[in-house]
Amino acid sequence: MALGLSEPQYELLNGKKKYVQPIIHSMVLIGLVVLVVFVVFLMFYVSWMTFEDSNDQNTPMDFVLFGPQKYTSSYVAAYRAHSFAIAAKSNYKTYWAAKDKINLNKRIEKTYHLACYYSIPIDNTTKSLHPAQINATLCTHLIVAFAQVQNNSVYFKSSFDMEILRQVVKLRDKNPKLKVLLSIVHFSNGSHSNEGFPGVVSNKDNLDTFVSNVVSVINDFYLDGIDIDWEFPSWPLLNLQEKYGFAKLLQTLRYRLPDSLLTAAVAAPLNIIDNSYEIYSLARFVDFINVMAYDYHSYQWYFPLTGPNSPLFSSRNDTGYFQDLNINSSIQYWISKGMPKEKILLGMPTYGHSFILINEANNGFNSPTSGPGIGKDGFITFSEMCEFKSHQNATTIFDHDTRTPYSYHKNDWISFDNENSLAYKAEFAASLGLGGAMVFSLNTDDYSGSSLCSSSVFPLTSRIKIVLNDDDL
Ligand SMILES: *[C@@H]1O[C@H](CO)[C@@H](O)[C@H](O)[C@H]1NC(C)=O
Ligand SMILES: *[C@@H]1O[C@H](CO)[C@@H](O)[C@H](O)[C@H]1NC(C)=O
Ligand SMILES: *[C@@H]1O[C@H](CO)[C@@H](O)[C@H](O)[C@H]1NC(C)=O
Ligand SMILES: *[C@@H]1O[C@H](CO)[C@@H](O)[C@H](O)[C@H]1NC(C)=O
Ligand SMILES: *[C@@H]1O[C@H](CO)[C@@H](O)[C@H](O)[C@H]1NC(C)=O
Ligand SMILES: *[C@@H]1O[C@H](CO)[C@@H](O)[C@H](O)[C@H]1NC(C)=O
Ligand SMILES: *[C@@H]1O[C@H](CO)[C@@H](O)[C@H](O)[C@H]1NC(C)=O
């Protein structure tokens, strides 16, 4: 019975063990839960603190850039502020060192790309720029803008658009080295609808459908490549599916189109760069990026002040984040984040932005304005600009800080680019050894050479070409 006696003891011990063990487990578990709750609380607390700070500082910036029209829904606006805080919290606020000192007198000798956007005209009237008028040897790349993305396919508005694309491709007969690309656009209206690019990257089937369609469009039209113009992935709301989806899209396109050119039109503001791009994927999969280094300032009702459309450097009166609203900051930032210089094309505008001054005596930068001025929505072409200057007897100032001119007469105030400002931009590109320049667009340059301040065709684009290729400021 000795065995019999010891068994219950053992059983008791066993029972006790069974009873004690769960208590220890529960206590460890409760401890862990408390720890996790504490850490989560701490994270929320810290992020809330930072959210408050950075939100106050940075909210105006993307309003300046994009305007209220993209954020009509208050739901979206609320989340936009949040995503903006996340963007501001990332590397934007950290110290980033530009490795390259700029010396505008030094340049890196090589062959530079000159990629020119050509917007498909609305119809076949004589007033707009038609493919036959494009000088086939002016640009190294012509990017035809735009086809849209709809239902996971490349969508042309009309057969007229396709006909124009075919005519641009034919320009290669005149210049066999010319590369013709089609730009596929998606403008986000601020909501994350499942259409356009967000839909394409939402699952593998959609992605495969889209990429296969792109491949057939390239073959059907004998294109040299494709330009992806998604403005912007993961913006204004941080959306990792879009951010990584964009990287996946580029990877898949590169894999399926090993011999075609693949480019992307990308943002210039630092916080969008942080929010939208996996720079590693751009560096690896695209032939070059077109940095849209313009629209830094245009009329907005909540920020109704004059400012340069495309400043090369900051203005002496710029403070805070306004100090980074310029080409130098954008390009140095792209480089500091790992984008290879030779894959960066510096985007240059041939158009300007107009404003109506409230007080014509107050006519420098940061002067109060009441609305967009001459031109559609305040966009003014170089030819319109020339007419304004000549007919109105306007005053034109070349601002040395930003290396851009502005012109005013009575209440009209216009920031624009001319041969000089674009020469500075081209020198800047050559001094850093970038891949070259992008021009937006041939349509807003003086393509007929008939305006009052130019005697040759495409004076602005030609000037960029000359400065990129010869040492001639
Ligand atoms: C250009 O940007 C870099 C990086 O922000 C800065 O260090 C440098 O001073 C800027 N150059 C000019 C002329 O503003
Ligand atoms: C535009 O009109 C011209 C002549 O009027 C014609 O030759 C050309 O094919 C037309 N282009 C398109 C795209 O329809
Ligand atoms: C076309 O552009 C090239 C390069 O800028 C220039 O040399 C040539 O004269 C231009 N051709 C015409 C017809 O304007
Ligand atoms: C979208 O594409 C699919 C096939 O890819 C087609 O069956 C469907 O009809 C298309 N829908 C629209 C609205 O075009
Ligand atoms: C944005 O576009 C989508 C689809 O095109 C539409 O459903 C949505 O209502 C639009 N949102 C806004 C705020 O305009
Ligand atoms: C900078 O601000 C001062 C004082 O308001 C003003 O006189 C000057 O014109 C401004 N300079 C520029 C380049 O905007
Ligand atoms: C143009 O402006 C200058 C001074 O800015 C003035 O002297 C001249 O009379 C003006 N000419 C005309 C035609 O308005």
Automatic annotation (TrEMBL):
Coiled coil: none annotated. GO terms for biological process: carbohydrate metabolic process; chitin catabolic process. InterPro entries: Chitinase_II/V-like_cat, Chitinase_insertion_sf, GH, Glyco_hydro18_cat, Glyco_hydro_18_chit_AS, Glycosyl_Hydrlase_18. Residues 112-471 form the GH18 domain. Keywords: Glycoprotein, Glycosidase, Hydrolase, Membrane, Signal, Transmembrane, Transmembrane helix. It comes from the Eukaryota. GO terms for molecular function: chitin binding; chitinase activity. GO terms for cellular component: extracellular region. The chain crosses the membrane at residues 23-48. The keyword Cell cycle does not apply. Belongs to the glycosyl hydrolase 18 family. This is GH18 domain-containing protein. It comes from Aphis glycines.
